[in-house]
Amino acid sequence: ALHSSPALQGSRVTETEGRVRSEVPRPKAKMMEAEGAVAAVNSHVGSRAQSPDGHRNTDADPAADPRMMRRIIAEDPLWNLSSVPSLLQLCFNALVASFEREHSEGGRYHSKSVLSELSPEFQERLISSLPIELPLKLTVGIEHDAYWKRKVQAIERWRPCVVADHGGSWKRMYFERLLRERLEAVIPEKEAEEMEGPGNILEIAAMAAPYVKVLDLRQLQPPNDGEPEEPVLLPPVDDYEAEVDGQIDIGDDDDKHAEHIDLVPVLRALQVSELRVCYMVKNCGMKFKWSMFGMTSGDCSTLMRGIRDYVPSISSLSLHGSLIGDSKARVICKFLLGNSTITRLDLSHNAIGDTGARAVAKLMNNSVLQEVDLRDNKIGGIGAKQLGRALRQNTTLRSLNVRLNRFKDEGGRDFFRGLAGNKVLRELNVSCNSLETLSAEALCHYVDRNPSLALFDISCNELGEHAGRLLLEALDGNTILKGIDLRLCHFDKDTEFQINVILKQNAKR
Predict the structure, then answer these.
(1) pLDDT tens per residue, range 283-320
(2) Which of 158, 217, 388, 485 is the most buried (most CB within 10 A)?
(3) At what angle do helices 87-97 and 120-129 cross, to 10 degrees?
(4) Are the C-beta atoms of 352 and 379 separated by less than 8 Å?
């Protein structure tokens, strides 16, 4: 009617101009566009309605008389054209509202079906509209990281959120942190309820299996009636060949049961590539008990048997800060003998002595280990000697850390003498081991003959100025060694400067 009747057109436009300005809230850009359109139409209609003498012609333009103007009043006073959603938005609202109902069939959720039928643009729009409180069964199929980023950042206790520690994947970060939180809170007396009850840990582990690569447990709850188990240091045996054919005798430690939570069912469901467990309790406050700290013999045998039998995918194992003594170290090495997947073993910050070091030495030549961390233990001279003898014929180990042990001078000498035949080790840390003059000569001989060592830490050992000069001579012609930590070795400053010049030249090559 507006296009067919000029008179009616003018009538409607004239009244609409006032109503638009006073009643209809619009964005600024749209308001200016509407006002311009109204002015243009008014100008066009007014020119047609004027008489030759310049006065309004009410006969030609009935809208010139307000009494004859037709008015349209909306039934809903709150009605506004700009607030009416588009059909597309209505469809999205319906999808979001019925996401759970429309994608559940017989207890199984199929969130991938609708998402796969949408274009990438609309997929992102739908994902951004979904609430983060949806059941995990429904959302596990969502592969868009934006949704999982919102879900992770909404949990304040997980902050700061360092996604780089989880392979750059927000989804992987969510499942790894969720499993860590649930497992660290399990009390052994309620283990069955937590593992098999509604929303249980095993159910979450089954859903998270494709995404969880690292299980990092920084504490485990102890049993309420548990007794502290002191780390046992066995009498050292200065005989590297005492355990025939690579076998390690562990007595009856193989028959004990776990006292903390049994991690084997979770590991079987996940098939992780890296496992880090610390048997201790954080922030215990006034509830402190010695039984809160340390892995028991039952925990050790149960976990290692499960790793050997059911977790063939693991490549890195860390049991740090768990008060592991010689007997438990032997159990660990016993179950890892012949393992063809674990390339990294971390037993740092424990209480391993010479007998435990002998078991580790045996393991290094009966596995594919490339990195071993034994820092902050109680390995003395006999253990150092056996580690060195094992490394003489080793062809796989690339990194060894024995920092903060108790080699002493004679133990350091025996260690470097045994190490002299090694041709594959690239990183070695022997700092803080009370090495002195006897060790210095064997150390320099090792550096002079070694064709592979690239990083060497000998800091915090009283080697003396003579050892510094011997090391400078050993570095003459060496182009492989690129870094040596010389702090607190009591070297002459001039000698230390010349050593650093050689190392800088090697680093540039």
Answers:
(1) 888 888 888 899 999 999 999 999 999 998 899 999 99
(2) 388
(3) 60
(4) yes
